[in-house]
Design brief:
Shape: globular
Largest sheet: 5 strands, antiparallel
Distance between the termini: 23 Å
Radius of gyration: 13 Å
Length: 84
Amino acid sequence: MEKLIASWRSVEPEKNRFRFYAINVGEDLWGDEVLVKRWGRVGCRKRENYFWPDSYRELMEMIEDIKETREEHGYRPERGVMAN
């Protein structure tokens, strides 16, 4: 089962830009922690990537880097534990 960490949206109708980005943490079949990144156009098929961090610290660093990058690219927090 995955736990939503955060999701962002970048909507600019005048530029035909309707994007979303979300990160979740879950477990794979062997019980290892995995970070799931999903992104794409709102209402369309999403893309996703999976990352297996070596430690809790690496996981937190990855999440913080993603958060900073999304905000630099004009995304605004929508929901999740890091959306505040």
